[in-house]
Specification:
8 helices
């Protein structure tokens, strides 16, 4: 087993890295500040300088996850020629994140819906949702998306993509990329039959 002990530099980052590994391998119940300190080779009180308790650690993990997801979505959407391509790129980035970080994504959404969410975490959630909201507003401006409340449309899109990503992370979707294309196509065309 590789030596994961902390030697110098940013203890907070080292604790978060170790916590994310533990979260992925053993789930949130296995997280312990004392255990993280032992693994890092620091005193059991040292993590307290960065996280007052386990909940603060979970919040920091969720915040990091939303910030990384936002960065992935921003990078994915660059250069898309139209709204459908943009939404497909966002959907792929979101699904890739979910497949690579399933336990973290679960934690992110558990904290997102908690009543005592911090202002910083709430802002990170809003920042991530703004990516989709901006795509919807631009699609409405160009006539590629129907008129209506962009927030309601963005909610439909994000709910659908989150559900798809969750199913994919649980290995219930075969042919992920092909299925994702179809999901985005249905989002763009709607479910009503078209008259010719």
């Amino acid at each position: 087993m590789a030596d994961r002990r902390y030697h110098h530099g940013d203890l907070r980052a080292a604790l978060l890295d170790s916590a994310e590994r533990t979260l992925s391998e053993r789930g949130p119940s296995a997280l312990s500040l004392r255990e993280l300190a032992r693994e890092a080779g620091v005193s059991h009180a040292a993590p307290g300088r960065h996280f007052k308790d386990k909940q603060a650690l979970l919040d920091a993990l969720a915040l990091s996850g939303f910030q990384r997801l936002r960065a992935a979505l921003d990078a994915a959407g660059e250069g898309a020629p139209d709204t459908a391509a943009y939404l497909l790129a966002l959907a792929r980035a979101y699904t890739d994140f979910a497949l690579s970080n399933a336990a973290l994504l679960d934690l992110m959404y558990a904290r997102k819906h908690d009543s005592d969410i911090s202002d910083q975490l709430a802002e990170a959630v809003d920042d991530m949702l703004d990516v989709v909201l901006s795509a919807i507003a631009e699609g409405q401006r160009t006539g590629e998306i129907t008129a209506g409340d962009p927030g309601a449309i963005a909610f439909t899109v994000t709910s659908t993509l989150h559900g798809f990503a969750s199913f994919s992370a649980n290995n219930t979707v075969e042919h992920v990329d092909e299925s994702l294309r179809e999901v985005v196509r249905l989002l763009m065309t709607g479910l009503s039959p078209r008259t010719t």
